[in-house]
Amino acid sequence: MLKKIYLFATSKSEHAINIKSLDVRFLKPDINFSNYDYLIITSKQTVKALEQYSKEDFIDIPALCVSLKTANSYKEFGGKILSIGDGYGENLAKSIKEYPKETKWLYLRAELIASDFVQRSRDDGYSIEEEILYVSECSQEILDVRVNDDSTLVFTSPSSIECFLKNNTIHPNAKVVVIGTTTAKCLPDGIKYIVSQNTSIESCIELAIK
User: Fold this and answer.
1) Residue whose C-alpha is closest to residue 178's, from 1, 9, 3
2) Residues in the chain with pLDDT < 70?
3) Alpha-carbon distance 156 to 179, whole Å?
4) Which of 22, 91, 132, 182 falls 20 to 30 Å from 119 in CA-CA distance?
């Protein structure tokens, strides 16, 4: 008998029991986009948050996107793509180093972030300013769910693990799939896990099915 697959994410899959991990609240700080050469975008939620602004103020500013999924989302929105990362925020520092230190970057981000690439880049002399466009909070759905068996659990962000563990523990025999190494670091000590080959929900689910 196949084990149940629980997907803790903001997106869904037809092959899993979908548990919404986060509720997102958008913010709208005043931003003078003309001060910047490039944008840094690390989630589709950032693209949604940008819908609050006049497109003409920023749409011609190319964006460094963390992954192909994020880049496609921004491209569909009408934005220009500067470069696409490998899906890991911590590796964006390598992309930033390909440009002069005089370049003015604007990182449009969530309130809580897992990667320290901005500080590392600043320590190397790069100019990066930040604006918080959204706040992610544990959804009631993930707080209410109870998983007490040895199902397969798919976690797609550090916060999805943190929210799940507020009211659950991970069964010793559960199979755990994580979307990346940053997410894996949030698992309790002693939990065995597998990291998906690509930083996408599709890749995680494919691994979970196997």
Assistant:
1) 9
2) 1-2
3) 5
4) 22
Fold for the domain defined by 5-21+139-209: Rossmann fold (3.40.50)
CA distances from 57 to 47, 79, 103 (A): 14, 11, 19
Residue 87 has what pLDDT? Answer: 76
- Return d(Cα 129, Cα 118) in angstroms, integer: 9
Sheet holding 63-65, edge to edge: 22-26, 127-138, 104-110, 38-41, 63-65, 81-84
How is domain 25-137 classified at the CATH fold level? Rossmann fold (3.40.50)
HEC per residue, the chain: CCCCEEEEECCCCCCCEEEECEEEEECCCCCCHHHCCEEEECCHHHHHHHCCCCHHHCCCCCEEECCHHHHHHHHHHCCCEEEECCCCHHHHHHHHCCCCCCCEEEEEEECCCCCCHHHHHHHCCCEEEEEEEEEEEECHHHHHCCCCCCCEEEECCHHHHHHHCCCCCCCCCCEEEECCHHHHCCCCCCCCCEECCCCCHHHHHHHHHC
Length of the chain in residues, anyone? 210
